Amino acid sequence: MKLIATPAHLLFRVTRTRLFSSTSISDRGGAIIKGANGALIHLPPVEHPVGRQLYKKAIYCPSSQTLRTSAHVGTDDDNIVKRGTVGVGDATFVTPEDANTYAYNAGLRLLATIHHQLDGDLSRVEQVLKLEGMVNAEPNFIGHLGVIDGCSQVFVDAFGTDRGVGVRACFGVGSLGGAVSCNVELQVRPPANEQS
Fold first, then answer.
1. Are strands 125-136 and 167-173 parallel, antiparallel or unpaired?
2. What digits encode the pLDDT tens for the residues 50-62?
3. Model pTM?
4. Any idea what the Cα angle at residue 125 is, between residues 177 and 64, rounded to 5°?
């Protein structure tokens, strides 16, 4: 009998997605949600502010019905923050493919924060408005869009191509707390008990 090993990041990408509150704990340590196409998405644990904690990971403005998040850095599939410079042609660089995976995992971390902020009710998300992605890249790197596609894919999986796609800004930076960092802004319906 021949066993074939499947890389963990491929397994996670096949089994992602959910829109409503869940009591199940995912193999990543967070909630399990159902996405736009019915596939399950396994979220990591909710992230909390770091350092002196002089900021919030997300904030909801009821008057504009907008939810904004702080930046969430990219991780590997074990939820370990990955640092380094993204580039090609040098073995010391983070590859664009690995950076795409880190951006995907940053998207999962963002989704976990959003899920928590909305008390598990992702059906309140009406539209992804804006996704920003920063890539710690070497000066000649031009593949920022392909890297941040990883994060964008999470929102498409969760909310579909209409609600899950908004405007996007991707750019390279000279230093960053991780190889990739992303934040998102969403249009969100008020909770049912606050609707008039």
1. parallel
2. 777 788 899 999 9
3. 0.84
4. 85
